[in-house]
Amino acid sequence: MKRGLALYAVGAYAFLHVPLLILAVFSFNASKFTVWQGFSLQWYAALAQDRDLIQAAANSLIIAVVATALATVCGTLAAYALWKRASGWISASLYLSLVTPEIVTGVSLLAFFQWAFRFLNLRLGMHTVILAHVGFSLAYVVVVVLARLRGFDPALEEAAMDLGATEFSAFRTVTVPYLAPAIAAAAMLAFTVSIDDYVITSLVAGVDSQTLPMVIYALARRGVSPMLNAVSTIIVAGLGALVLASERLRAK
Amino acid sequence: MRRLRRLFLAPGAVLLVLTLVAPLAIVCVYSLMTRGAYGGVERPFTLENYTRFWDPLYGAILWRSCWIAAVATALCLVLAFPLALFIARSGSRKNLYLSLVILPFWTSFLIRTYAWMFLLRDTGLINTVLQAVGVIHEPLPMLYNNGAVILGLVYGFLPFMVLPLYATLERMDPSLAEASADLGARPLQTLWRVTLPLCAPGIRAGSILVFVPCLGTYLTSDLLGGSKTILIGNLVQNQFTSARDWPFGAAASLALMAVAMVLLLAARRQGEEML
Amino acid sequence: MAGDAILELRGVSKRFGSHAAVTGLNLGVERGEFFSLLGPSGCGKTTTLRMIAGFETPDEGEIRLNGSRIEALPPYRRSVNTVFQNYALFPHLTVRGNVEFGLRRMGRTGVDAQVRMVLDQVQLADKASRMPSELSGGERQRVALARALALEPDVLLLDEPLSALDPQLRKQVRTELKDLQKRVGVTFLFITHDQEEALSISDRIAVMNRGAVEQVGTPEEVYRRPKTRFVASFLGAMNWIGGVGLRPEALRISREVDARSRRGVVAGSVFLGSMVHVEMRLENGETCTAQIPHDAAMFRTGESVHVCWNEADELRLPE
Predict the structure, then answer these.
(1) Number of domains in chain A
(2) A111 CA to centre of own chain
(3) Would you state the pLDDT for residue A252?
């Protein structure tokens, strides 16, 4: 049975990875049809000159970095507070946040923002996107950090306080270092989820805050384009490298 | 101690109210209102948005969404189990094989859906190759149907099923499989009578992790399903954008949430909580 | 091999990487006996058990059950069943479900009858519908026993079955196991590192060290007439006085000289309730410990005494 399983695994991994490899291969195709006609970097060159795309990529990056920072900090603090003493409504809300389908989160945020804008002089834009991203990343961060906290011995903090540390400084000097791998993992999770989000972002972004997924979606809707292959390859390679790097760091 | 804790919880609590509680509350209220002349919402309050689901058109959409999500989940389970088994038994290389599964998941869901567009279109790679080889003379219509949506969903969510299955298999006491063999069960019998039943928590967790997002899918059905495959996610999105019928969209959202909640509550067991 | 050997191992060896777990092992177990494999951890007894059960295959040698070779057969084809150290009860099945797991080929009534009989033998008939998580450690062990016995194996392997139990329970369960084996008549192969356990319940003991058997014999034989220094020391405390081995209970302490005695000074004594252990330093620097009855004369630390013994109790063993 072992050989059968191994054979199956090869097939499964092929299923998972080959489509992306094919995308990458055809991003270097000289022609725009799905027939190989020579190696070319023209599509990558076209990408570099697409101002809208580059702006969208920059927006995505800014949003992801800010949202990740906020979500990681708020989430870590919340996870710690929950670990100390559970809060029924907060845990329930976080759980709800995780199980609510993206589309429902998106439309509900849209409805809320539009309602709120009747009283505030604001419009949809980068700030609404960032708030939305922080919102849906929060639960992921809490889950990851809380899982790590479950293996933490509270006696360590008590020992620190026994030796003169305040609660906050015990948290800072004893608990946070212990949590560091989980915080890093949670940040990576939040970052990836934010960079890739389309559904929620498209609903709460303003006209002048296009993100990379929105541009990609528009291109995909119009039809297949090698530029899309090129963008895809860059993103997959980039995120893949990020993941591998963090795995390597974690293994140390 | 309590002050620190409250302080720590405050930002998270505020965020939750702003991004979850208030928005959902508004959706609930809107679902009971009427569509305004210019696309807003206005009174009177009514239950009409919900009774609209008795209309076979909308009922069919809900049903099709459940059906597609169920098929995708079942396929994920069948495809993921042998892979999870393989990884759990691969000894020292477990982490490598696990990373290979997780890696595509970390990259963009949107891009992975686009990859199938590239492969399945009439002018896509598969049709081009098959025609070049002479197997077919006209392109096979593989895109823009339920099958393509299911394929896209399985492709997208397979890692979500592999991980919980692997976690359960990995923690299983190896002496149980030995005991089973000791008592006369052949390897396949051991798999069926011991390993699989003990995997139930992983199967439950994985099924939920796959079914709920599949139920509310928007991107996959939009890009791979075309106009023939309208699922609940597309309906909701539609109502909030082009159709501008927010109250109905709100009701549809809540219907979707209700189905998801029912399933989650049904699948809950003691000691399996994450939060 | 002489007698009615139901299980024989000849020249069995097993290596794990560069570590030789078992080398050239020879063993014969007779039908119906309670046979123990005794040895320290790492001596290869668990590996040997796993090879007999079928979870490992020997690199060299033969394993014969009832005369036929089984070393290449998978576990599910051998008429050998195992009671695992952690019992390995299936958590998702009831006691009944666990016990009838291997009984597939009989009809429903046959299975029920067999299950009932075997649960009666271990006195768990009233807990047949319980789940393993609801049982105590001792009860779980009995289920493991019942499950293995239900298949009526030629040999029942027990992998340190008492080590997971509370110390108070161990003696009681030990006696119950012995009684069970006598009643049922199945050949038991019992693995342990506890020499008191092995001595108290076995018909014969094989003492293992570093992958090989050093001696096989009845409890009395291996204790009173050990063939190597290792066997002597492992079966009980040993004193080595001038190259001669003597058990603590064979030493007597007196204030007068005797035929075979040595002079020494009392270094300390430990009162153990039913007996006293007296440590002494002899003239030539060697130390020894004597075990004397609790009501014997008390000796003070620093007192000069004579240690004596009978020639019959001497053990002259090669180093």
Answers:
(1) 2
(2) 23
(3) 59
State the nearest Cα–Cα gap between B147 and chain A, in angstroms: 16
What confidence tens digit (pLDDT) does each residue in C218-236 have?
999 999 999 999 999 999 9
What DSSP designation does B226 have? Answer: G
Nearest CA to CA, how far is C105 from chain B (Å)? Answer: 11
The whole-angstrom separation of Cα C9 and Cα C30 is: 12
Residue of B nearest to C150 (CA): B183
Q: What is the dihedral of CA B229, B235, B240, B241, to 10 degrees?
A: 20
The SS3 call for residue B21 is helix
Q: Return the number of other C-beta atoms located less than 10 Å from residue C228's C-beta.
A: 15
Chain C neighbors of B198, CB-CB under 8 A: 90-92
Q: Is the pTM of this model over 0.95?
A: no
C102: chain B residues, CB-CB within 8 Å: 183-185
Together in a domain, A65 and A155: yes
Task: Nearest chain B residue to A219 by CA: give it.
Answer: B114
For chain A, which residues score pLDDT lower than 50? none
Report how far residue A80's alpha carbon sits from residue A75's, in angstroms, rounded to the nearest whole number.
9
Are residues A122 and A10 part of one domain?
no
Interface of C with B in 55-74 (CB under 8 A): 55, 74
Q: Which is it for strands C34-38 and C204-209: parallel, antiparallel or unpaired?
A: parallel
Contact yes or no for C102/B183 (Cβ under 8 A): yes
Interface contact B9-A5, CB threshold 8 A: no
Give me the half-sphere count of Cα atoms (radius 13 Å) on the Cβ side of residue A172.
6
Chains that touch A (3 or more CB pairs under 8 A): B
Express each pLDDT in A68-127 by its tens digit: 999 999 999 999 999 988 888 999 999 899 889 999 999 999 999 999 998 888 889 899
**Cβ B119–A99 below 8 Å, yes or no?**
no
Residue B126's φ and ψ, nearest 5 degrees, are -60, -45
Domain boundaries, chain C: 5-230, 240-313
From the CB coordinates, do chains A and C have 3 or more pairs under 8 Å? no
Q: Are residues A92 and A216 in the same domain?
A: yes
**Residues A35 and A55 grouped into a single domain:** no
Backbone angles phi, psi at B89, to 5 degrees: -100, 10
Any B CB within 8 A of C16 CB: no
- On chain B, the residues whose CB falls within 8 A of the CB of C104 are 184
Architecture of the domain defined by C5-230: 3-Layer(aba) Sandwich (3.40)
Among B6, B28, B42, B108, most A C-beta atoms within 10 A, so best to mutate, is B108
Q: Which two tokens stand for residue C112?
A: 């029920």
Identify whether residues A28 and A122 lie together within a single domain: no
Mention the CATH class of domain B56-267: mainly alpha
Q: Does residue B111 contact residue B152 with C-beta atoms inside 8 Å?
A: no
Token readout for C19 is 């570590």
Are A129 and A188 found together in one domain?
yes
Q: Which residues of chain C have pLDDT under 70?
A: 1-3, 105-106
Structural domain harbouring A7? 1-40
Contact B111 A111 (CB under 8 A): no
Asked if C54 lies within 8 A of B182 by C-beta distance, the reply is: yes
**Which residue, chain included where needed, has tokens 């292959």?**
A229
Closest CB to B183: pick one of C91, C92, C151: C151
Q: Quick one: A95 and A126 in the same domain?
A: yes
Architecture of domain C240-313: Beta Barrel (2.40)
Cα distances (Å, whole numbers) of residue B245 to A201, A203, B31, B37, B233: 20, 15, 10, 10, 15
Task: Dihedral sign for Cα C220, C224, C229, C234, please.
Answer: positive
How far apart, in Å, are the Cα atoms of C78 and each of C69, C74, C280?
10, 7, 54
Closest CA to A131 of B105, B247, B22, B275: B22
A30 and A70 co-located in one domain: no
B68 φ, ψ (degrees, to nearest 5): -65, -40
